[in-house]
Amino acid sequence: MDPAPSDRRTLPGVNSVTILRPDDAPGVAELVLDRAEALNAISTEHARAIAAATATLADDATVRAVVVSSASDRAFCVGADLKERNTLDDDGLRRQRPVFRAAFTGVLDLPVPTVAAVHGHALGGGLELALSCDLIVADETATLGLPEVSVGVIPGGGGTQLLTRRLGWSRAADLVFTARRMDAAEAYRLGLADRLVPPGGARDTALELAATVAAHSPVGVRSSKRAMRLGFDADLRAGLEIEDAAWRTTAFSGDRKEGVAAFNEKRRPDWPGE
């Protein structure tokens, strides 16, 4: 699947992130990390661009699924721009911190399902961007890791929390404490990657996966994501109450009426999205 974009957008004053809307995947948006000359190393301005792009996508009711991909042939994202970091004093680092947090939480808080298309290096903040997505597609060239302790910090883009939730305590600790890198096959075996595909196939597979998601009820999918996210850290009884609230949102929606009607009429649903 290699869709031609019907809409290519760069945000005002920003050239390191591009938003694509594929012609043959209605409802899918692609957020492209487009700082290829630096292997998508996250500078302050690049972080601002990511945060701005996620805000744009979150406000667009026509977006039903998002793919996060890379314009670089060699990397998904190599993490924080350490050359820039080397120029920052303590005050500069403090000022940078909320900008970076906005980038990672912008991806994490998108209300629609998100899929990371990972190839090449996904290290530090790059892996954390992928972990901020709901699903990760990795091709066989991918190398993943959280090496932050090797440069005197910790994974600060959600890595200590998101990796632990994905892999469990001991497997996450192995990666964080040793700063080691893993290949795509190990990532898939451990459950860090949800799909493992041949070299060069991550983007196409991620777009196909997003298109499958986007074909379903927008109300149902958004409500499912919200219930799963909110309920994950709740006790079972509280989680069931969260699920019930989400069920009530969908059960009395136009999407539910259309979905049941389409099933009985043996046709594809035309989701109203409300």
Amount of beta strand: 15-25%
What is the helix content?
A: 40-55%
Ends: how far apart? Answer: 29 Å
The CATH H-level homologous superfamily of the largest domain: 2-enoyl-CoA Hydratase, Chain A, domain 1
CATH class of the largest domain: Alpha Beta
Number of strands: 11
Decide which structural class fits the backbone.
Answer: alpha/beta
Provide mean pLDDT, rounded.
Answer: 95
Number of helices: 11
Determine Rg (CA atoms, Å).
19 Å
Whole-number tally of structural domains? 2
The low-confidence parts are: 1-5
Largest sheet data = 7 strands, mixed
CATH topology of the largest domain: 2-enoyl-CoA Hydratase, Chain A, domain 1
| CATH-defined architecture of the largest domain | Alpha-Beta Complex
InterPro entries: ClpP/crotonase-like_dom_sf, Enoyl-CoA_hyd/isom_CS, Enoyl-CoA_hydra/iso, Enoyl-CoA_hydra_C
Family: Belongs to the enoyl-CoA hydratase/isomerase family.
GO molecular function: enoyl-CoA hydratase activity
Keywords: Lipid metabolism, Lyase
Can you characterise this structure?
Keywords: Lipid metabolism, Lyase. The protein has helices spanning 44-58, 82-85, 90-108, 125-131, 159-167, 169-178, 184-190, 202-214, 218-232, 236-251, 254-264; strands at residues 5-10, 17-22, 28-33, 65-70, 75-77, 114-118, 121-123, 135-139, 143-145, 181-183, 195-197. With 274 residues, the protein is of the alpha/beta class. The strands form 2 sheets. A 7-stranded mixed beta sheet has the order 1-2-3-4-6-8-11, sandwiched between helices.
